[in-house]
Design goal:
Layout lengths: L7 H10 E11 L9 E11 L7 E3 L3 E7 L2 E2 L9 E3 L6 E10 L8 E5 L6 E5 L22 E8 L3 E3 L6 E4 L5 E5 L14 E3 L2 E7 L2 E7 L4 H25 L8 E7 L5 E2 L4 E5 L10 H17 L7 E2 L5 H19 L5 H8 L1 H8 L14 H6 L3 H18 L1 H15 L3 E2 L1 H12 L4 H8 L6 E5 L2 E5 L9 E9 L6 E10 L3 E3 L7 E6 L6 E3 L2 H10 L6 H17 L4 H12 L5 H18 L5 H15 L6 H11 L3 H14 L2 H13 L5 H10 L6 H10 L3 H12 L8 H10 L5 H14 L7 H10 L8 H10 L7 H20 L3
Parallel strand pairs: 1-10, 16-17, 17-19, 20-21, 22-28
Antiparallel strand pairs: 1-2, 2-7, 3-6, 4-5, 4-7, 8-9, 10-13, 11-14, 12-13, 15-16, 18-19, 22-23, 23-26, 24-25, 24-27
Length: about 800
């Protein structure tokens, strides 16, 4: 079915014409137990400000019948996801009966069969305009209304929605139950939800909240293992946000549902869904726990910013996501055990925004969004990561007290309403007493990354495309490097407002610009500071300072100002003594990536071996052991390395480590099919087939690569999770470039035929770009494909961004 994308003009006209009083939606899921049929009857009660006017309702389904105010509507006129409506009265009731069998692609709804026990699970995820795929509605964010759901589902299934059910009764005739839910608050169509299946449910009562946690039956031991931590994080987040926003989450029920094959998470009001890859099959490392905590805090922040107060139109989508990302880090640093979260963010995540913002894919944080499809094209690192970095800079610019006061004003004024960015900035201006119009324009309407250098006691700012420098509130830390340690000399704050800003600094051999990481800018250190920071990063006491050195090194790789060998050596030195759990895994990941992907083929083996030598020492550090063994498994190069791994795997019967060792051996040409089969048979993970695919992906043979390729692009058999990205990087081994060359060009062809919802398509696009393996010929083809308008905009943006990084990798290999 070809669907029209709602335009901003159409949405504004419909919003002016209509006001929706309520949705009463009856969903029938009984056709999903053994089949693919989803049915719904949507009753929409609404008013029209111009009686006699006409409009359309969104419904991308097979429409069986529709009535408007009791009169039949011609459903044969339905086309492109729209059903035209006849002349409207002042008060209207529209009833639409419809069904769909499109329940296997993740477009609005996904039916999944667990491979271990054949149980069926169903989830819905409706952003941005997928609600129309499962019931009729006016599918735009500013036509908010209460939703009341009645769900008929197989008797063995549990149903979750946006609140607690009012009643659950047996169906009169079928082997089914009928779940009835009360009215939701006034919500946008994209944040309501219905999930169902034979879920395992756990409930906990804390602080006046009724907390629910759900997973599929095959993952019950994993959920139970991590339940206390999930409960603690949920309690911490609800308490912190409720107090800081002066607006406690306004309903008692808060559910979190871990579902199969969801590439991310969705902030449904009171009923968040996560891909169940967040239920790590092996006890998670500190970094994995931190990632999951960030998901929990991010989606929870949306309850206020996005659900309670919602953007008028999708041009402010960035603000929803940037705010939730910023608030997640803020909340974790203040309210959870992850007190060094800002250091983790800088070391592990911020690089992705610099990569895109320095590339031809750069775009302003906010921009004109002519239709809904355009909104999702910018669902990227600029929206999430640069966006939250800019909010972090705003906190520094106006002060945290004013920032919080502005938020409290915002939520109080606009609860359950729709807003634009101007509404939020007005609240911040009142709270801070500052005119923020120039700040807003400079940071949100201009693309590109400022580059800040410290030259002759001046902060010098280079901009993109001849723009004026943005205002930067940043700190500089100075250290005396004359002794055996780096001794702090002073730390000062500066407001940068032009191309050159004089600074008065004490003498010192290391000057860290943007200490504390308060702004979003690439930094070029002076020559002495660069040498000192790379050689002595391990001597900096503050984890955030050490993270800043690693991040600056990453920026300099992109700028072409440092060689991969120097960055890899610096990180390897740092890892020999790194003790902060917030940094161990980000440093391991960056060191492995630079040695493996950025370094030239002639240097990579030695750099990987040196990293493995350093990591062997970390294996003896209890808090770092698990992460160190995983990196050692990816870089093992000598018999001594393998001895450490084999002893660890035997000691703990660690299936995860055994899989990782099998991947590395396969990459080195040692593929043992029987050993892989035994691992697969012993692994209880319902998605263990992914681990087998990773072993095949690493092997330097056309046959194994073809099998993985088919799983991605023919059978669509790769479950969506963060492991999808790992599988992609395993496929594109830099040392196998000649073997992989034909596949690089096939990747560009596959982009024309991708299926599934945006989250899952986006994962595949990112995972399967040949970042370490593409050559100059592929790079030229990818850059040309980025201008192919027959590709969706999201794919073109990812091509531009990743092609830029690939070009810098190829350049860095020549340094």
């Amino acid at each position: 079915m070809t669907l029209s994308s709602l335009t901003k003009t159409e949405a504004a006209a419909r919003s002016k014409l209509l006001e929706v009083q309520r949705y009463d939606i009856a969903v029938d899921m009984t056709g999903l137990l053994e089949g693919e049929v989803w049915s719904s009857v949507s009753t929409i009660t609404f008013t029209c400000s111009e009686p006699g006017a006409t409009t359309f309702v969104d419904v991308a389904m097979d429409v069986a019948r529709a009535t408007l105010n009791g009169e039949e509507v011609d459903v044969s006129a339905a086309a492109d996801g729209r059903l035209p409506l006849p002349a409207l009265a002042a008060d209207n009731v529209l009833v639409v009966e419809a069904s769909t069998t499109n329940t296997a692609t993740g477009e609005g709804v996904l039916r999944t069969v667990d491979p271990t026990d054949k149980l069926v699970y169903v989830w819905t995820s409706l952003e941005p305009d997928e609600a129309r795929r499962i019931w009729a509605c006016f599918d735009q964010p500013d036509l908010k209304a209460p939703h009341r759901f009645t769900v008929t589902a197989p008797s063995a299934w549990l149903v979750t929605s946006n609140g607690a059910p009012e009643s659950v009764v047996d169906h009169e005739t079928d082997d089914a139950k009928v779940w009835t839910y009360p009215d939701t608050p006034r919500l946008s169509t994209y944040v309501v939800v219905v999930n169902a299946g034979p879920f395992h449910e756990v409930r906990r009562q804390h602080d006046g909240y009724d907390l629910g946690f759900y997973c599929r039956q095959s993952l019950v031991p994993v959920l139970e293992r991590d339940l206390d931590e999930l409960v603690t994080l949920t309690r911490q987040g609800l308490a912190f946000f409720g107090e800081r926003f002066a607006f406690p989450f306004p309903q008692a029920r808060y559910d979190q549902v871990f579902v199969p094959n969801l590439g991310g998470a969705m902030e449904n009001w009171g009923c968040v869904t996560y891909g169940d890859g967040q239920l790590f099959r092996t006890p998670p490392t500190y970094a994995q726990r931190g990632v999951r905590a960030e998901f929990i805090f991010h989606e929870m922040a949306h309850m206020w910013f996005g659900d309670l107060v919602t953007m008028q139109w999708w041009d402010d989508l960035w603000l929803n996501e940037a705010f939730a990302s910023w608030a997640a880090n803020w909340g974790m640093a203040h309210a959870s055990e992850f007190t060094d979260q800002w250091a983790t963010f800088l070391a592990a995540a911020k690089r992705t925004a610099y990569e895109m913002d320095m590339s031809p894919a750069r775009h302003p944080i906010r921009g004109d969004v002519p239709d809904v499809s355009a909104a999702m094209s910018n669902f990227d690192a600029i929206t999430y990561v640069k966006g939250q970095s800019v909010l972090h800079q705003l906190v520094a610019f106006i002060g945290e007290d004013a920032f919080v006061e502005g938020l409290r004003d915002y939520f109080s004024r606009y609860a359950f309403a729709n807003t634009s960015l101007d509404d939020l900035m007005d609240c911040y201006s009142r709270a801070s007493g500052r005119d923020l119009s120039a700040w807003t324009k400079a940071w949100l309407d201009e693309a590109g990354t400022d580059v800040v250098s410290l030259i002759d006691d001046e902060l010098v700012v280079e901009t993109t495309d001849g723009q004026e420098p943005r205002p930067h509130r940043l700190d500089i830390a100075v250290f005396d490097a004359s002794g055996d340690t780096l001794a702090p000399v002073g730390r000062s704050s500066h407001e940068v407002t032009g191309p050159r800003t004089p600074v008065d600094l004490p003498a010192g051999g290391l000057r860290l610009v943007n200490a504390g990481d308060l702004t979003f800018a690439a930094v070029k250190p002076d020559a002495e500071s660069l040498t000192t920071m790379l050689e002595r990063v391990q001597q900096l006491e503050d984890p955030l300072d050490r993270a800043l050195v690693a991040a600056t090194a990453g920026q300099l790789l992109l700028l072409g100002d440092v060689a991969p060998r120097d960055v890899a050596a610096s990180l390897t030195r740092a890892l020999r003594t790194e003790t902060s759990p917030a940094l161990v895994e980000p440093f391991l990941g960056q060191a492995l990536q630079v040695a493996d992907r950025w370094a030239p083929a002639a240097e990579s083996p030695a750099l990987l071996s040196a990293l493995a030598d350093a990591v062997v020492g970390l294996v003896e550090v209890p808090d770092a052991r698990q992460a160190a063994l995983r990196t050692l498994a990816a870089s093992a190069s000598t018999d001594a390395h393998w001895s450490v791994l084999e002893a660890a795997a035997a000691e703990a019967t660690d299936l995860d480590l055994a899989w990782r060792m099998a991947v590395r051996r396969s990459e080195l040409g040692d593929y043992d099919e029987d050993a892989v089969r035994r691992l697969l048979e012993s692994d209880p993970d319902p998605d263990a087939g992914m681990r087998r695919l990773a072993v095949l992906a690493a092997h330097p043979s056309v046959e194994t690569k073809e099998e993985v390729w088919r799983a991605f692009f023919v059978d669509y058999a790769v479950p969506a999770s963060r492991e999808t990205l790992v599988l992609g990087s395993t496929f594109w081994r830099p040392g196998q470039a000649e073997l992989l060359a034909p596949f690089t060009h096939r990747y560009l062809e596959e982009l024309h035929t991708l299926k599934g919802g945006l989250l899952n398509q986006g994962l595949t696009i990112r995972a399967m770009f040949p970042l370490g393996a593409g050559d100059e010929t592929f790079l030229a083809a990818a850059e040309a494909a980025a201008d192919d308008t027959s590709l969706m905009a999201y794919a073109r943006n990812q091509l531009r961004s990743n092609s830029f990084v690939l070009s810098r990798i190829l350049q860095a290999r020549r340094l």
